[in-house]
Design a protein that fits this description.
Blueprint (H helix, E strand, L loop, with lengths): L5 H18 L29 H11 L22 H13 L10 H17 L7 E5 L2 H16 L3 H5 L7 E5 L5 H9 L7 E3 L10 H13 L3 E8 L11 H10 L3 E5 L24 E4 L1 H4 L7 E5 L2 H8 L30 H35 L4 E6 L4 E6 L3 H18 L5 E5 L2 E7 L7 H5 L1 H13 L1
Parallel strand pairs: 2-3, 2-4, 4-5, 5-6
Antiparallel strand pairs: 1-7, 6-7, 8-9, 9-11, 10-11
């Protein structure tokens, strides 16, 4: 295939994409493929001679879609949606044509400066103070790791990056069990260790208890350990839990600790004024991560980290060898120094297209609709004695299970979830609440409608009746 062939094949791909979205509701949301099924269809070795593009494309159509779970399906209610708004798809296609490595300003002036402006737009739409600057990572996992590494180095006065962490006094990170597992991973990779990720107790709303945090910090200081930072969540993955930022910040600041807020999913809701009370005190934190690829249509991967003072993170993860030095006039930003990978994709382009194609008001309307529709659905389960709603949250996520004794409900709720997902009409996932098996429900897909959300209750209800029968 030559560059001259690209227009024709791009049109064919676009036609396929149009048909895919037009017919996606006919597909089962979750793939029914068995382990190894797709692998068995692939030759063991790469072809020695070029294959014809028609054959390659036919194989794609024949093999790949049915082997995928369809994240863009309007009835994908599992995990959190990884959205791909039409404008974002177009922007990603253009970025793929350019195929730049946006590691330095010099290698990508427009990409670098567009990233700066898109972070500003996003910051302002969220109502964040103007002192926050930011960078676009691939995922919140990398943003969380950068934040934890920065906490570690600030607590060690940057001796860790200079001399290693062996022999240092042990840094401690404070979080709750509601935080995403990427915080655990960050503690491991940062050399802090799982044992030094301190689980602070939560209240009845699953929010961190400020006094428990204070006691944990004081106990660690007395033991000769080094409190390094606090990780809070706004919209925890399991239940949508929200930590009280202002009261926790008051404690953390007394001890000079960095505060990082993982708002990867729910942070996008803050473009709506009415949700901002749930992160009161956000102006006091050092770092925030929000994933535009989860709720506002900028397809994966696109994770924005806001920083009150980027210098600390740059000092921790930044590195500028001679072969990356550049000669230029004026002040420039090299975003590779704000993150871990050197190579960087042109992620800002899809944010630019999304903000312009839908407007902040259009995105607000979508988020408000999703939250409202899920709350209505929650009330239907709550009023049905055959179900028990275990948790709710402000941003349109709730968990439920079948009623009955714990042993009965655990077993039957597991079976219920499997029946629902095997049916292919919707896709839900599970979590555990206080040791009890539960089903998660949240909406966030870009093309999701009220009818899609309303369909959940009768589908689950019928599956429950069939299970009992």
């Amino acid at each position: 295939m030559k560059y001259k062939d690209l227009p024709a094949w791009s049109r064919m791909a676009a036609d396929w994409g149009e048909n895919y979205f037009a017919t996606i509701r006919r597909r089962p949301v979750r793939s029914s493929a068995k382990p190894g099924e797709f692998l068995s269809k692939l030759p063991a070795a790469a072809p020695e001679k070029p294959d014809d593009m028609h054959t390659i494309f036919e194989d794609f159509e024949r093999m790949v879609p049915d082997g995928m779970t369809h994240w863009q399906h309007p009835r994908f209610f599992a995990y959190f949606s990884a959205n791909a708004a039409p404008a974002s798809i177009l922007a990603e296609q253009l970025a793929n044509y350019i195929a730049a490595n946006c590691m330095l300003w010099q290698t990508s002036p427009a990409a670098t400066e567009l990233e700066t402006r898109m972070v500003d737009w996003f910051r302002d739409s969220l109502g964040l103070p103007g002192h926050f600057r930011g960078v676009i990572h691939d995922s919140a996992t990398v943003a969380n790791l950068c934040a934890v590494l920065t906490m570690r180095e600030k607590a060690l006065n940057w001796d860790g990056v200079a001399n290693g962490i062996s022999g240092q006094r042990q840094p401690r990170i404070y979080a709750t069990s509601e935080n995403h597992s990427s915080i655990d991973k960050a503690a491991r990779i940062a050399g802090i260790g799982s044992a030094n990720l301190v689980r602070v107790s939560t209240d009845d709303e699953r929010s961190m208890r400020p006094e428990s945090l204070r006691h944990a910090i004081e106990a660690d200081l007395a033991a000769g350990l080094v409190p390094a930072g606090v990780v809070l969540c706004v919209g925890g993955t399991s239940t949508g839990a929200v930590d009280g930022i202002a009261p926790v910040a008051a404690v953390a600041e007394n001890f000079g600790l960095n505060i990082h807020v993982d708002a990867a999913w729910a942070g996008a809701a803050m473009i709506c004024d009415e949700f901002r009370r749930h992160w009161e005190g956000i102006e006091q934190v050092d770092s925030i991560v929000i994933n535009p690829h989860k709720w506002i249509g900028a397809q994966f991967d696109c994770s924005v980290q806001f920083l009150a003072n980027p210098d600390s993170q740059i000092r921790t993860v930044g590195l500028r060898p001679d072969y990356l030095s550049t000669s230029s006039v004026g002040q420039i930003t090299n975003y590779n120094e704000w993150t871990i990978p050197l190579g960087r994709r042109f992620r800002a382009l899809k944010l630019w297209f999304v903000f312009r194609a839908y407007g902040v008001e259009g995105l607000r309307e979508m988020i408000r609709n999703h939250v409202s529709w899920v709350r209505e659905l929650q009330s239907r389960f709550d009023s049905d004695p055959e179900f028990e709603v275990l948790t709710t949250c402000p941003f349109g996520l709730f968990t439920f299970r079948l009623s009955g004794s714990d042993e009965f409900a655990d077993k039957n709720t597991r079976q219920l979830l499997e029946r629902v997902n095997n049916g292919g009409q919707i896709y839900l996932t599970q979590t555990t609440i206080g040791g009890r098996f539960a089903i998660r429900m949240t909406a966030g897909q870009f093309e999701c409608t009220k009818a899609d959300v309303d369909a959940v209750y009768p589908i689950v209800k019928e599956a429950g009746e069939n299970l009992r029968a």
